[in-house]
Design goal:
The protein is an all-alpha fold. The chain has a domain at about 20-60. Helix content is about 70%, strand content about 0%. The chain has one helix spanning about 5-65. About 0% of the residues are buried.
């Protein structure tokens, strides 16, 4: 007959260790996903603010009579805004 210690060590301890390992993996995954969501939210907020600022610059330039070349056009690196 096995002692209580042998029974716990042989039958229950591996299950306890496996459950702890699964719990740690799930916790790490949850933490990583939360961090990714926060980074994405921050990135989208900054992207929105930059987009709004560029739209304001474009509106200001248009009201002052400046014209800008299209973004994808030409390979000329010395193109500047003209009046």
């Amino acid at each position: 007959m096995k002692t209580l210690y042998e029974e716990i060590r042989t039958y229950y301890l591996p299950w306890i260790v496996a459950a702890a390992a699964v719990a740690v993996i799930l916790w790490q995954q949850h933490t990583a996903m939360s961090l990714i969501e926060r980074i994405n939210t921050s990135y989208l907020e900054r992207l929105t603010s930059v987009s709004e600022a560029l739209e304001q610059v474009n509106t200001t330039l248009r009201t002052e009579g400046y014209t800008l070349p299209p973004l994808g056009g030409g390979g000329d690196s010395n193109v500047r805004a003209s009046r």
